[in-house]
Structure formats: C-alpha cells, structure tokens
Design a protein that fits this description.
CATH class of the largest domain: Mainly Alpha
Largest sheet: 3 strands, antiparallel
Distance between the termini: 64 Å
CATH topology of the largest domain: Preprotein translocase SecY subunit
Strand content: 5-15%
Number of strands: 7
CATH superfamily of the largest domain: SecY subunit domain
CATH architecture of the largest domain: Orthogonal Bundle
Radius of gyration: 24 Å
Helix content: 55-70%
Shape: globular
Structural class: mainly alpha
Number of domains: 3
Length: 463
C-alpha cells in the first residue's frame, strides 16, 4: 500500500514537471534574420533591466564583488542581481546527479529530455527564491526597514525573467541565453575599461586604458602610459592564446557500423572541459573570501584580514592576485619579494585547482571514457577494423580524455592567472569566458546559417 502511494506521488510530481510553464518552440526553424532580431531584443532588454535599480534598497554591500557579477551575468543592486546564478547552480547539480547515475533519466527520448528540463526549471525556481532571501536576510543587499519582502519579491521576479529569457534565446535566438548574458556583461565591462571617460562623479576622467594611454603619451607621463599599455597588451595576448587553444583538438577515427565505408573524425577539444574548471575555482575563491570576511568579524584572521575591502594577510591573501596586476604594483610600490611569492602561490593554486576540478567534472558529468564510449556505441559507431564493442572505444578514449582533461585544466587555470597577474582589463576568468563564448557563438552562426545568411554577414563570419 505504501509503495502504491509512493508511486502515485512520484507520478504526480513527474506530471507536474512535464507541465511546467515554458516558452513554446517555433513551428518552423527561425531563419537568420528572425534569430538576429530576437537575440538583439533579448540583449536590449537585458541591458535595460540591468540598469533598473531595486526599489526599497538602502545599501549594496555586494558592489565590491564586481568580478563575481561578471561571471553570473548579473548587476548587483539592480533587478538582475541574481543573474544566471540560480540557473547555473541548478544545471550543475542536476548534471552531476544524472552523470553519477543517482537520478535515472533517459535523455534519448523526448519525454526524458522534457522531464530533465522540467526538473531543471523546478530546481532553478527553488534556487531563485533561496538566493533572493539569502541576499536580503544576510544583508548583502540592505533593504529599508519594513521593505525586505518587497526587495526579495523584486529579486524573484528578476530571476524568473532571466530564466525565461534564457529559454527564449535557446529557442528563438543564437544559442544559450546564459552564454549571451555573460558575454554582454563582460563586453560592457571591457568597453568601459578600455574607452570609459566618465568618473564616479559624472565628470570627464580617463578611466579607459585606451584614452588614458593617449592622454599620458600626449602629456609625457610615461609611467601611466606604460601601465595602460601593459593592461591592453595583457588582454590582447590572453585573447589570442585562448582563440588558438580553442582550435586545438585531437581527431579520432570512427566509423558507422550500419554503413560500410562511412567514417568520420570524432573531435576531442584540447580544452576538453571548457571553462568549467576555472569557474569552479573562481567560485571557490569567492566563497573563501566571504568566509574569511565573516571570520574577521568574529576576530579570526588566519583565513584572511581585509583593509578597504582588499586582503592584506591570511590564506586569502596568498590565494589572490595583486590588485591591478604585477606591472602596476612594481611601478607604484617597487619590487617586493613577498608579492612575487604571493603571485606564484596564486598561479600554482589556479593551475592545480583547475586540474582537479577538470578531472572531477569529467568523472561526474558523463564525460569520462566509459560514458562517451557507451554513447557512441548507442549511436552505432565503432573503431574501424574492430567489432562494435564499447570496451574497444573506451580503451581508445582513455588514452586521450584523462590527459586532455589534465592539460586543458592546467592551461585554462594558467591563462586565467596570467590575465590577472598581467592586469588585464577584466578578470582572467571573465576574459576567458567572453572569448570562448564569442568563439563558440561565431561557430554556431557559421554552421547553422550558411545558406540563409545575408551576404554582408557572410563576409563578417567568413562564410
């Protein structure tokens, strides 16, 4: 009897997930112009909402975590304070549960995919409510007396808008809205850091490095010109290396068992786990900073000691890059062996942390050799000259996937750390995300719209 009641409740919950509110997919595949129109509308709406302040907000103590806002596609203090945080958190948790076989969902069937999407949306809504309450009740966002519930409600509405904008972009625009929002935030920050000309008071101030470089050269201030040039060159160097690394891959020969003579190359990217490891490492560091800040209020300083919002001692100090990068620090403060050691510690932490997170992600997100071999076998692929057996494919993949995960994780951690140490225009993690998202967006547009793209855009994307 109890088993029947359990099954009944489980079936009701499954039907609830299958009938979650959603944006209906288009009846026909949108052409290039329609996708461009919807993408531009989503971007415009995103920027408008990002400039809409929360009503009833008294102070915003989250403003100093601007680098975290870029990773979350958020604008702290606005209605988009939550950004994509709830969506990403729900997605990562669900993928880990499915990848570890703790939840059995058949992703090969339409019902299984719909069930997965419904469960992800349900978890996202829960995280939206939870994070909205935490931000206000833990006084990250300080509401005016008596208006706490109003601010929480606005955050929940903003989170739901972002969730449906992401779905709208996936069905009618160019790919994932999550990637689009991150790219928009980082691109705006890059433009401001490169060409910004207004200071905090609204008066003219060469805050942009390109403008600062021109003014410094004209006035003969070589020190400031060097600092601006170092930031610009650091950004360009990391940008170029990431684009080059994106194109590196290992191609494995496989054939389709049902069609004799039909073979293709299965690509394994050098950056096998993409930027997931560096995102997890950045989130770990952000949580350490928050924990150290709370510990300092209790008189505990071994985790970190902060002055003017910057770590000056403790564990967090040794796991952070010098503010503004090494070139700026050496020119303004002179050579300091302690800062060199701190930079080396930060670089090594990022490299080894990203290697560890890369292996963890491979083994829990269904990217390990066995899972990939089972997936290829299910689609009817095999190694040329061998019978169709997942063990054969697994043996071949095992030679490449683990080394690629380790090397790719180390490379992405090294690039992120170098961008921070060189004093790039935005944080290393944000820069890597923006470059890789832009690269993938370019490939998506090129592949999906080779025939219906207007000649003007075809030249831009080198079709």
């Amino acid at each position: 009897m109890q088993e029947q009641v359990k099954n009944s409740k489980g079936e009701k919950f499954k039907q609830f997930l299958l009938n979650m509110p959603e944006i209906q997919p288009p009846l026909h595949r949108p052409d290039f112009k329609q996708k461009l129109k919807w993408t531009l509308l989503i971007v415009l709406f995103f920027f408008i909402l990002a400039q809409t302040p929360l009503w009833g907000l008294e102070s915003n103590t989250l403003a100093r975590f601007q680098y975290l806002a870029l990773l979350l596609g958020a604008k702290f203090g606005s209605i988009l304070t939550l950004g994509i945080g709830p969506i990403v958190t729900a997605s990562i948790i669900l993928q880990l549960l499915v990848g570890a076989k703790l939840i059995n969902i058949d992703m090969k069937t339409p019902e299984g995919r719909q069930y997965f999407e419904g469960l992800q949306k349900f978890l996202t809504i829960l995280f939206i409510i939870f994070e909205a309450a935490v931000y206000v009740l833990m006084r990250g966002l300080v509401a005016k007396p008596g208006l706490e519930s109003v601010v929480i409600l606005q955050l929940i509405v903003g989170g739901l808008i972002i969730m449906f904008m992401d779905e709208l972009s996936s069905k009618y625009g160019f790919g994932s809205g999550i990637s689009l929002f991150i790219l928009c935030g980082v691109a705006l920050s890059l433009i401001v850091q490169a060409f910004g000309f207004l200071g905090p008071g609204g008066h003219f101030e060469p805050v942009g490095k390109v403008i600062s470089l021109g003014i410094s050269l004209a006035s003969g201030n070589l020190k400031e010109a060097y600092l601006s040039l170092a930031a610009i060159l650091g950004t360009i160097i990391v940008f170029a290396i990431v684009v080059y690394a994106q194109a590196l891959r290992v191609e494995l020969p496989i054939s389709f068992g049902r069609l004799r003579g039909f073979s293709l190359k299965w690509p394994l990217q050098f950056l096998y786990t993409s930027v997931i490891p560096v995102i997890l490492a950045a989130v770990l560091l952000a949580n350490l900073q928050l924990l150290a800040n709370l510990a300092q209020q209790k008189g505990i300083y071994w985790l970190g000691k902060f002055e003017a919002g910057r770590p000056v001692a403790g564990l967090v100090y040794w796991l952070s890059a010098p503010s503004g990068g090494l070139p700026r620090y050496f020119l303004t403060h002179g050579f300091d062996l302690r800062v060199v050691l701190k930079s080396l510690t930060y670089l090594l932490f990022m490299v080894f942390a990203c290697m560890g997170f890369s292996l963890l992600w491979v083994n829990t997100a269904g990217m390990d050799p066995r899972s990939q071999a089972e997936q290829l076998t299910a689609y009817g692929f095999q190694i040329p000259g061998f019978r169709q057996d997942p063990r054969m494919i697994e043996t071949l993949l095992r030679r490449y996937i683990t080394p690629l995960a380790l090397m790719g994780g180390a490379a992405i951690g090294l690039l992120a750390a170098l961008a921070d140490l060189l004093g790039a225009l935005v944080s290393g993690t944000s820069l890597l995300l923006a470059v890789m998202i832009a690269y993938q967006l370019n490939l998506t547009i090129s592949r999906q719209h080779a025939f219906d793209m207007p000649p003007f855009f075809r030249k831009i994307f080198r079709m």
